[in-house]
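Q: Here's a chain of 68 amino acids. Please give me its 3D structure as tokens.
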Amino acid sequence: MPKSIAVVSYDRCQPRQCDHGICNAVIACPHGFLYQETAFELPEPRPGACVGCGICTQACLHDAILLI
């Protein structure tokens, strides 16, 4: 069975409502799956960095990250 990977639902993502515009999932992921160039930007995924642990899904305040 293939492993799960995280995907960002950009219609739900609201970095302006995260502390100082820094995405909570970016901070929480120990694998560096997501990054932001600057505060208040939408987080971008790093292909291949996701290990399917789900930590980012739990950290996101807006349920904008899903494991598929």
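Q: Can you summarize the key feature?
A: The chain has one domain: 6-67.
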